[in-house]
Amino acid sequence: MRTKISFRVDDISTFKVSLLQWAQQFYEIVWLDSNDNEQKYSSFDAILAVDALTAIKTDATHAFEDLKVYQNETKDWLFGYLSYDLKNDVEQLTSKNYDGIEFPELYFFQPKRLIKIQNNTVEFDYLQMVEDEIEADYKSILNLSFDTTLDHTQLEKSLSIKMRIFKDEYFKQVTQILSHIHRGDIYEVNFCQEFYIENQQIDPIKVYQNLNAISKAPFASFLKINDKFLLCASPERYLKKVGPKVISQPIKGTAKRSKNKEQDHQLKYNLEHNEKERAENIMIVDLVRNDLSKYAIKGSVQVEELCKVYSFDQVHQMISTVVAEVADDLNPVSIIKSTFPMGSMTGAPKISAMQIIEDLEAFKRGLYSGAVGYFTPENDFDFNVVIRSILYNSSKPYISFAVGSAITAKATPEHEYQECLLKAKAMRTVLE
After folding, report:
1. Tens digit of pLDDT for each residue in 375-412?
2. Which of 87, 96, 338, 370 has its CA 20 to 30 A from that of 344?
3. Residues 6 or more apart whose Cβ sits within 8 Å of residue 304
4. How many CB atoms lie within 10 A of CB 19?
């Protein structure tokens, strides 16, 4: 059982900074922030989960079944992540590429302390064993004395960012993917590359705040599991369930922003009417429709929005919204397993695309292109897509960020390479 107490806070932006700072005392943190982006399907502006009562950590073997049992038995809020390499639990696949970050494949915890923000209301939702600490925690957060202005200066020493593959190798791999496409093995593959930093430390909170300030993404998240961190400025929702309704919002299609209003409008218009980008998006929409139809009530899969362009601080993005209805007694983990990994980060057909990804990429994706989110006690859930993110293992220490683009028949290696650099810009900026 949980106890809920609400408070009104006038300066929410300062409160958010204090809240995340206060949370660092705990071993497990999941912070999800919509950054005031108006979304049709949002549940709250931001939410923080800390201080695990119980947890599940596993590799890919029987991971979804183990999560199903854990979620069924707990019947409470659960926060955590699904790594991309859970693909090996869904299909007969393997992961043999280099893993610098070493996150477990799956991690969820039941938080003793849950704090939700909606407009100017902050709701503390605590398990009864810690309910008598609500007032004290609220005062601690309000009274934290530190500089809440964001540091936009460079880190004290410049970090040396390395590339896992260089441009000529990237061109070679994309050319190989194109030969697969022309041969008819696949229609589309999301091909990714890793940038990394070895033997250097960062302040995860400062880097996250700077990344978030640049991007103001609707599915931003800060995750800490002991010595491992995710600093995420994701624009993309993977999957959400509210009652019988399931919502997927894949992104395919990216264009840069311009400070010149007319030029920016033209860039947006060009993306809206770009045949290649629309074709990519529609292919993934078809894949998502197919994934959702495995558990959807017959005839309920609908495309609510097709190829709509949304503008974020760094980029314009082409987003589609696919919805479906599911039976009341369907286990939520089953829905996720049937659609995992998300089509926007794999390709079509999905299994062939994942085999080619494993063959041609030079790093293990791990949490990158996985999902962070939560389950509710009512069997609902909401997960983002882990992109535009920095991963950090503070014990090694090792810092990683990856970017990718969709390769289709009309792709050119140079254009795809430039798209990757555009997507990497925000992460590079805060690290350099």
Report:
1. 999 999 999 999 999 999 999 999 999 999 999 998 99
2. 96
3. 321, 322, 323
4. 22
